[in-house]
Amino acid sequence: MTAPLARLLNEESFGYAGESAFGALSLKTMRGTAHYWTGQARHRVGGERALLLNEGTSYRVEVEPGTRSFCIFLNPGVLTLAPLAEDAGAHLRFLERTLTPPPPIWALLGTLRTRHEARTLDPLALDTLALRLLDLLVGEDREAWRAADGLPALSPARRAELARRLFRARDTLDALALGPVGLGDAARASGLSPAHLARGYARLFGETPLTTVTRRRMAEARRLLEEEGLGLPVAEVTWRVGYASVTTFTAAYARWHGQTPGWARRIGEVGDGRRH
């Protein structure tokens, strides 16, 4: 009897830290938050953000208490079986990054999780669903590589390496956004000079590193201000999302959301009828 093409991990953590010297090709999702380190790069996983890692990538992970993980690990050699892998090459390696999977991937992950928890996932069904997931991931990966075609580089190999480094930089900025973070952090994670990073980043992602950090901060600030039951003061939200000055935070929030933090907090206090 041959081994299944994939194995699943579905567990709740009371707080965990560990590392893997030679990981499998895997897609990691969390209900809660986990932080992964691959070299100097950092990746935040949780909510709608999943992490795609290649076979052989070493990493370190810290999982916050109360986080429930659902990860799928694909066995060595499985890439050669993917319907789209034939013309992608037998040694296909994904563009490692955190991503927001499109609905078809989330739906498939939901099916895997539900059947795994119900113990109705026999080896044949697991293989079938794993191959379908792999096919979807290959298609998603191609879209990411197409976005990298416009990067300035002398050769396809150098362009691919630049794309990998830029995605590591973006993941690191997102993971560190709620604390003191600067272009130097992204430069160290990517191994690029700040100037080279800034140019390539704008070409690949269509925005500056500062915009990436601001988007993350503004999304978290809005959640903290508007989520019913929290009632956090604006000053505390300012600190939680990485700003040192309430004035600076208030101005940034108003520019981004078109309303003041105080108004957003009142929405959270009385409830927002749009949610019901």
Report Rg. 20 Å
Q: Please report the distance between the alpha carbons of the first and last residues.
A: 52 Å
CATH class of the largest domain: Mainly Beta
Largest sheet: 5 strands, antiparallel
- As laid out across the biggest beta sheet, the strand order is 1-8-3-6-9
* Total strand segments: 9
- CATH architecture assignment of the largest domain: Sandwich
- Average pLDDT metric: 87
Query: Based on CA inertia axes, which overall geometry fits?
Result: globular
Give the uncertain stretches in residue-range form: none
| CATH-assigned fold name of the largest domain | Jelly Rolls
Q: Any idea what the CATH superfamily of the largest domain is called?
A: Regulatory protein AraC
Task: Tell me the number of helical segments per DSSP (H or I, 4 or more residues long).
Answer: 9
Number of domains: 3
Structural class per helix/strand content?
Answer: alpha+beta
